Amino acid sequence: MVLKDATAGPRNEKGIAAVIGVLKQRFGERLNTGHSTREQHSHTTTYIPEQLPDAVVFAENGAEVQEIVRLCADHEVPIIPFGTGSSLEGQVNAPLGGISIDTASMNRILEVNAEDLDCVVEPGVTREDLNVHLRDTGLFFPIDPGANASIGGMAATRASGTNAVRYGTMKDNVLSLTAVTADGRHITTGSRARKSSAGYDLTRLFVGSEGTLGVITSVTLRLFGIPQSIISGVCPFPTVSDAVNAVIMTIQMGIPVARIELLDALSIKATNAYSGLSNPEMPALFLEFHGTEQSAKEQAKMFGEIAAEFGSGEFIWAGEQEERSKLWKARHNLYFATLQLRPGAKAIATDVCVPISRLSDCIGAAQEDAAECGFAAPIVGHVGDGNFHVTLLVDEDSSAEIGAAEAFVSRLNERAVVMGGTCSGEHGIGQGKKSALVDEMGDALVTMRQIKAGLDPANIMNPGKIF
Amino acid sequence: MVLKDATAGPRNEKGIAAVIGVLKQRFGERLNTGHSTREQHSHTTTYIPEQLPDAVVFAENGAEVQEIVRLCADHEVPIIPFGTGSSLEGQVNAPLGGISIDTASMNRILEVNAEDLDCVVEPGVTREDLNVHLRDTGLFFPIDPGANASIGGMAATRASGTNAVRYGTMKDNVLSLTAVTADGRHITTGSRARKSSAGYDLTRLFVGSEGTLGVITSVTLRLFGIPQSIISGVCPFPTVSDAVNAVIMTIQMGIPVARIELLDALSIKATNAYSGLSNPEMPALFLEFHGTEQSAKEQAKMFGEIAAEFGSGEFIWAGEQEERSKLWKARHNLYFATLQLRPGAKAIATDVCVPISRLSDCIGAAQEDAAECGFAAPIVGHVGDGNFHVTLLVDEDSSAEIGAAEAFVSRLNERAVVMGGTCSGEHGIGQGKKSALVDEMGDALVTMRQIKAGLDPANIMNPGKIF
Q: Which segments constitute the FAD-binding PCMH-type domain (chains A, B) (predicted)?
């Protein structure tokens, strides 16, 4: 949460002016220095105050990105890659100014290789657009972080979401990518082969590097066949701990559950109020099973038996699209329902991830802590992975509340690390979690810094993020 | 295959003598400079001629490794980490001499967290030892590269094997690791959390780095529940292409096949002769299905229907252990059966991996090429991943044959890259594939070199490998 920027040096005014001059000539109206455009490219979904870039350039292809990067490199001017701006930790802020490269126009789907279950897309393609495009192929791209994020941004943040328990995260689903490095090379990190042991895993290094090592210009993704059968279900439990124990056994039994989401009692209350539902105000698991008709049913049945062992209420499930949507309505509307718990408040999301055996302890401690602080703090968890989000609803004009929220988040992050987990399951570090990363990684942060220094010695690639 | 070592400089005689002097004092009999021990630590399963380290030190824990690395760093002496020596591309050779750190005594299983489906092991634990240890927990570690390799070595080489199609490779199954870096820090690359977006993915960077970035001192692994039901099967096909097309459809249908191995007609012939079997001398798929009793059966049935569509012979499958072993006998004995095709010959293994749509083309071209060269060259493939091995049986005393084999491998690697694949699916680069890596990675190799230079500027960590 600390916004101090250890790398913040003086702005390179001369370099920035020179770069903008050249970019104006070269890109005409695609180079925008207007305040509102710059503002849109900094203050997005994050709770962190905006820091504007000096200009936004709308690139249309990888060659243009390379041209822009080379120019910025010559003048040592910061580059901030921009997808849709749905990052949460200030990843697109520009603490030292510089050039925001907007990739929204790089939205072509370059290849769909149905036999190989992969595709190649430009970074500005959003996950929803990709899935619309794929519809007739019988394939889909599963990663779903909630927002309709760009594939480039999702790769850069190592995003995941509700179905990572079955399909993995971006780390598992990016086969390869192309990127322009700080020294202006346009590299390809891997091939379309399903596996490789050909040298360092540059693909996984760039995935999650948040634009600090280069600008992603295309991404090769794994795809999956649309399951023959999808079953959705909802199941209430007396306590969070009972729900989590049911999840642990489900995973241990090898049931390949596609989604398994926990809403705490407060979240259920919020969604009941917001969507006119009448779910029992108890912790609940929202589930999805993918498979053949027979195997999806078998999975649901097995889960139901496990849930009953842990004292669950009625497990309701359905296979028809309409019924499924109805069951999951509470989960889908959760964000807006949560905001209505305190209208006008700002939502601060947390993102710890712990080994699943510690999950109910970690959630319980967070609930107690929130109660002591007087926060309304509903919790939703991607519990199959041990990842959960506490949403703090704060008055952003109250420095006391902001301070209390920051202290709460610090304690939460610390507890997660002590329990063998991490401060960030899927949102990344950005500006917001820099100090938490120091606490979590210890001496390993030196290695990250050595990599950054080796690949970007002038620190022009998204400076002030991660470190 | 080229053995020239671009990084080979003069040996650091003075530094090596100084380090050995100190290590003798410190480790007594655990520091060995005898020729046979040094030889055992260099010439292993690789076809590449041996290059001996100057001494072998048998480390017993991470603190000792750190001590050794710091000493070597002070004197700029090469360090070669050693597991079981089952690598194939000269990964444990010592072209500049130096100290081989044998980790075989670092064989403790430090934690088994059954609820979290993970464990923490020292690098010298072998995969078979781990699975024996796990037997009573109902869990297992799936990655099976054939050899009873050490977990540290498997992580360092990004190994995989027969069941990667279902369970992934070491990249997917190492949650975190500890390593001593070239500057003597003992770092932890991650946590036990199932997913993380906390900074650069150091875990994935060290996995597959072949000892060139540090010495692995412990590995945190994912585990899986032993499946309730395992079904094995064998199915012959008229052509490789028919078999591969059946694999493509199996994967597209989302059948979660656990193993799907291709043996070409020559391999079948070799195993028939070696093991007194009477499998039809046609390409065949060897399969394994994991699941509940119902789902494993359903998978086998679905596969059988697909196979029939591609003109398969009879698909024979079984669920009982004894029957299963009988069915898979040909696959299990393949290595020894292959050697009998030309007794006394040396086996050179290749390791390309291509998108599955190009697999039958790539295999077909390799078969034609081998026939033109006059090589007996049986082929076995982890076909679910597009990875296959051609085994060349050559007379190692014939420079003409060795030259022809090197040229064959170069052409194979080139074809794989042109087809969108890689020169190494699972064996790594070592010394043997350095020039192939240059051809494959192009400008991205500069980025790998920048990482190496940033993390190991004096090039003491396993020098002469990968680059």
A: 49-226
